[in-house]
Amino acid sequence: LFKDSGSPTIFDKIIAKVIPSKIVYEDDKVLAFRDLNPQAPTHILIIPKHRDGLTQLSKAEERHKEILGELLYASTVVAKKEKLDDGYRIVINDGPQGCQSVYHLHIHLVGGRQMKWPPG
Ligand code: 5GP
């Protein structure tokens, strides 16, 4: 119902540390934490700490270019930390057809097993 209105999501509580998460990386702009329901041996979510209208990737505007770069770069830092030296996958589920369920932009970093292509 509130999908596109920018209502608070569970990720706000994770950022505020009101609900616990397994944090693997944090700086002033980005938080990375383990997915509660992992789809691979390594499954980490990388999110902006300040959503600033980025409920989903397709809502991005010019002002978001810097944070989009920060998120992608943080993903590479996390992948190195997790020693995903044989590769990994980065996914952004966008909107209903993309199977997005939390409307606070996030990158999924999945690895630690052989991925398949094309995805389902
Ligand atoms: P989406 O389907 O929106 O691309 O991904 C949302 C992800 O957030 C899912 O993979 C789901 O398992 C994860 N998730 C939802 N609620 C929580 C939570 O409270 N804690 C953590 N760590 N992950 C969550």
UniProtKB/TrEMBL annotation:
InterPro entries in alphabetical order: Histidine_triad_CS, Histidine_triad_HIT, HIT-like, HIT-like_sf
Motif placement: Histidine triad motif: 104-108
One Gene Ontology cellular component annotation held by this UniProt entry: cytoplasm
Pfam families (UniProt xref): HIT
A single BP term in Gene Ontology: sulfur compound metabolic process
HIT domain segment(s): 10-120
MF-aspect GO terms: adenylylsulfatase activity
Gene3D superfamilies linked: HIT-like
Catalytic residues identified in the record: H106
Name listed for the protein in its UniProt record: HIT domain-containing protein
